[in-house]
Amino acid sequence: LDGLNTLLGHLIVTIDTRFLTELVEQLQVSDEGGLLLADNEGNILAAPKKMDLTGLGLVSDAAGRHLPHSITSHQHNPAAHLPQLLTLGEQPYYVGSKPLHENLIAHLLIPEHELLLLSSDISLLIGIVTGITILLAIPLMFYLLKKQILIPLRHINQAVHQLSDGDESIEVKPTSDDELGELSQSFNTMSQKLTHSNAKIRSLAFKDTLTGLPNRYLFGKTLERVMTECKQ
């Protein structure tokens, strides 16, 4: 068992990070900003080729270019990945930092004016989409208003006029289950009750209540009609 704890050798794995450097150099995040790779000391390891680093207030020495202290001072903060507004050189930048490895940190730098321009473009797009939505919604609202409210009310109004003119067989077909549908059902119920009431009134006026035969009033009306036809 003691032999199993004896150190026999070391395994060393090396990774070539040139692919990562080439990726960062070709990456274009914004017109003036970009993604930088640096170590814990702030030494820049990779930067986009199209990014102008002269205006960032970098510190240069014999070892190379270093990020300003305003960036490196908070790069290990757990909340450093949240964008912070920093003045680099003479221009404000939103800076976010994210540790990728023990000695490798990614820094994203975006100029403030680019974000403001982007936000204005987004606001304009939102305004256009909102305007188009309103323009499409207004005709749709009028169509639904006409179909769901105006047309059923017109049918009920026409039925009321026909009923007042003596047409007792009128009936309104409900088009929905809402209040207008209930109103149509109530009108149909009222029309049916009115028809039954009129039939009962005619029966009481023209027929004898005991025998059910035509009464004297109906006899007189019938005789008058027949005599008029005979004269013609």
List the helices and strands in order: HEEEEHEEEHHH
Range of strand content:
15-25%
Mean pLDDT across every amino acid position: 82
Distance between the termini: 139 Å
> Based on DSSP secondary structure assignment, what is the total number of beta strands?
7
Rg of Cα set: 46 Å
Helix-and-strand structural type: alpha+beta
Instruction: Provide the low-confidence segments as ranges.
Output: none
Major beta sheet, strand line-up: 2-1-7-6-5
The DSSP helix count reads 5
Helix content: 40-55%
* Sheet with most strands: 5 strands, antiparallel
User: Based on CA inertia axes, which overall geometry fits?
Assistant: rod-shaped
Describe this structure in words.
It is a single chain. This protein is an alpha+beta fold and 232 residues long. The protein contains five helices and seven strands; from the N terminus they run H-E-E-E-E-H-E-E-E-H-H-H. It has helices at residues 18-26, 69-72, 112-164, 179-206, 216-231, and strands at 34-38, 44-46, 59-61, 64-66, 84-88, 91-101, 104-111. The strands form two sheets. It has a five-stranded antiparallel beta sheet with strand order 2-1-7-6-5. The longest helix has 53 residues, at 112-164. The protein is rod-shaped.
